Input
Amino acid sequence: MAQSTERDGETLIGGMSTAGTATDAESPSGNNDEPLRRFLPRVYRISAVLTVVGTIASRVAGADLLAVNFFTGSFIGLLLLYVTAWLVRRYMTPVAHIKRNRNRLFLLLMAKLPLLGIVLYFVTSGDWFHPIGFLMGVSLTPFTLTLCGLILLTRQGSGDGRPDWTAVLDKTKRSYR
Output
């Protein structure tokens, strides 16, 4: 991925750079972007752990069909999140061709839907399909994403150090149009 020269706060967009930025010891409040950098890896880890725990728990309970479908649904949900995040990171870098990249991103995200339909057809047409386990597995990733987002939102504090979810709304948003 090519690095951009446009600055977003303390780091370069599209890559990690320490040149010209203050270190945690030099800046008075530390690095405010650190929780955002760890957000998706944390969602991946928590979802993977919950997938393994859910699969083992349903297997121990004797619901083998539920365990297989829960694992399959969780895998599909995690794969969709990973592909979407990779495509957004790949195509939404501030460069001279941002509109073309945005259109490519849209087309690739839409091309993902027929592929998902084909995968779902093969999953649901099998004799081993169990709808409850599959839906529980697919819904695990959005649930984890929402839960981690709410936790991150409540931990973002205002300037006085108290956690307040409204402090996130006070920050200005950037647009790369």
Notes: The first helix runs from residue 34 to 37. Residues 80 and 112 are 9 Å apart (CA to CA). The two ends are 20 Å apart (CA to CA).
